[in-house]
Amino acid sequence: IADEKTAKLIDAHFDLRPGAIIRDLDLRRPIYRQTAAYGHFGRDDVDLPWENTNRAEALAADAGL
User: Fold this and answer.
1) Which of 1, 7, 37, 49 is the residue whose CA sits 20 to 30 A from 63?
2) Does the predicted TM-score (pTM) go above 0.85?
């Protein structure tokens, strides 16, 4: 996918303003203690919003994939 198309897809599907990122990732929840000891890579026992792929199908469809 061309860089320009990728940028348009990101603009269309993600609100990257700081307040929107905080809202969309629910960053005001006290969830970071769960990652402090062993990190978050490869773990499925922790629900981390930035690991969510709920927009993947819509992105793929809009990208024509």
Assistant:
1) 49
2) no
Tell me which CATH code domain 3-63 carries. Answer: 3.30.300.10
pLDDT in tens, 34-50: 777 766 666 767 777 77
Identity of residue 8 = K
Each domain of the chain, given as residue ranges in start order, spans 3-63
CA dihedral 41, 42, 46, 49 (to 10 degrees): 60
By C-alpha distance, which of 14, 51, 17 is closest to 31?
Answer: 51
Tell me the helices (H) and strands (E) count for the chain, helix number first. 4, 0
Rg for the chain, CA atoms, rounded: 15
